[in-house]
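Q: I'm building a small set of examples for a reading group on sequence design. Run inverse folding on the following structure and report the sequence directly after it, with nothing in between.
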């Protein structure tokens, strides 16, 4: 997220542009590479405060129950190779990865990028039926 006029009007404590200012570079690097799920950590911190996903007080037990439900939800990145027109009928499944960067690296390592084909990486939620 980048600075916008709306963010410029916010106090620094509420401005998302300053969220990671005090974070060590090693942690930022791991977050950027997808090794640390900052979204899940934020949910866990809300639960530690007894708050639901909307920041409303629900109590520690209820917040913990809600966070445990969302922890079971996991997104993965599905790697496909297609023709240059990205036709679904031409998709060839190549793998499932925990992070988008891992999928990109696998595509590069296996020479999937060419003038005759395209790489598609689709984010999907585990244990959820959803046609894409």
């Amino acid at each position: 997220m980048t600075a916008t006029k709306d963010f410029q009007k916010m106090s620094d404590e509420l401005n998302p542009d300053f969220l990671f200012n005090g974070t060590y570079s090693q942690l930022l690097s791991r977050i950027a590479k997808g090794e640390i799920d900052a979204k899940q950590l934020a949910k866990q911190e809300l639960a530690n405060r007894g708050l639901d996903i909307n920041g409303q007080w629900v109590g520690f037990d209820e917040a913990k129950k809600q966070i445990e439900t969302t922890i079971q939800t996991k997104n993965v990145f599905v790697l496909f190779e297609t023709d240059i027109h990205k036709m679904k009928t031409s998709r060839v499944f190549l793998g499932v990865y925990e992070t988008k960067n891992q999928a990109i690296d696998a595509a590069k390592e296996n020479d999937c990028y060419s003038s005759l084909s395209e790489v598609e990486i689709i984010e999907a939620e585990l244990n959820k039926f959803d046609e894409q």
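The two ends are 26 Å apart (CA to CA).
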